[in-house]
Amino acid sequence: MSSPATVPAAEPDSVFRDAVFRRYWFARLCTTIGYQIFTVAVGWQMYDLTRDPLMLGMVGLVQFLPSVALILMSGHVADRFDRRRIVRTCQSIEALLAAGMAAASLGGWIDSHHIFVFVALIGATRAFENPTLQALLPSVVTPRQLPRAVALASSAGQAAIIIGPAIGGFAYVAGPGVVYTLSATLFGIAAVLVGGITLRQAAQRLTAPVSVRTVFAGFAYIRGRPVLLGAISLDMVAVLLGGAAALLPIYARDILHTGPWGLGLLRSSPAIGALAMALWLARHPLNRRAGRVMFAAVAVFGVATVVFGISTWLPLSMAALVVLGASDMISVVVRSTLVQLDTPDDMRGRVGAVNSVFIGASNQLGEFESGVTAALFGPVGAVVLGGVGTLLVVAVWMRLFPALAARDKLHEQPA
């Protein structure tokens, strides 16, 4: 392993010219494309098999539960062991799981129970991969580069969310087995890229023995810092209520009357807005009023959700999702930067694990919530109610977390 001192420092404006960061960026791109392709295939295949919106929601719940069960272990592991090795191992396991789904689909013996098993295993693996991959970034770049690096790393994820669903939707025409094979290949490429990353600075390893205190330290750290708690919980609750991702197969088939290609376009639309915003923020970082900008962005997210919910015209639905994705990216960058800058390195794994569970709650648990409310009120009612709920959350959180609303610069030192 190269010594951290052997890796030359790059200026903040030129972070993407750094070969080490580019390797990290492309690894994140590949693993996220692989996951997005996998998710598109699972959603469409499950709806083909069951035609039940509640089952779509159950996919999200089954994927989310392992991350909750493993949160304490995954954060502790990320702070104690080599983060590159953890990420590489997780991505290799994901490649094997996607290959297993391909074999089951091509063999014709796949059913909803098999899907749930594979999805649960993917969820368990990503419970270790996500916080560790996030905690690895500050060892790849300098502190001055970190805000731009977070935005650029987020752009990799959003580029993947554009490319992945489009590839998954169009490739699904050839069958789900083809989609899962592509997913397995991309997970494997990501594992190879991560294995070649050299660190700019050595990570501060957790050396304290395992105890209740060290395991729960991530929760305690966030609870004691209102800015972090407010940012993470605002993003979680807003996206949990306003997320419509689980219902996109229903909108594509039954409301907008498109096929798999239409689902691919809908899945890609939020990421188009998010990618554009991530690139803008990488070029023009938030230097003032970061907290108020985050609240405004979440409010726009709620309005865009309502517009999407009532739309029956594909171009308008896509436009609403583009705005939704752009506004969500502002919240993501603010939250992610605060988590990295306001957390000491030897706690980033545990804090990142808590953050990942909050993200999972907003995404996977939000899919379950959408499936339940769609079963009760129909898909349109579920999405519209979620958007209105997001607007109410913004108003409540501004009163509960005034320190977050007052946060000016992202790089302020936490109290």
From TrEMBL:
Subcellular location: Cell membrane
CDD domains: MFS_MefA_like (cd06173)
Keywords, alphabetical: Cell membrane, Membrane, Transmembrane, Transmembrane helix, Transport
Coiled-coil region list: none
Predominant subcellular localization, coarse grouping: membrane
Taxonomy, superkingdom: Bacteria
Transmembrane helix among keywords: yes
Matches recorded under InterPro entries: MFS_trans_sf (IPR036259), TM_effector (IPR010290)
Topology versus the membrane: Multi-pass membrane protein
GO cellular component, one term: plasma membrane
Membrane-traversing stretches: 25-47, 53-72, 149-172, 178-199, 227-252, 264-282, 294-314, 374-397
Name of the protein this chain belongs to: Putative permease, Major facilitator Superfamily
Species assigned in the record: Cupriavidus taiwanensis
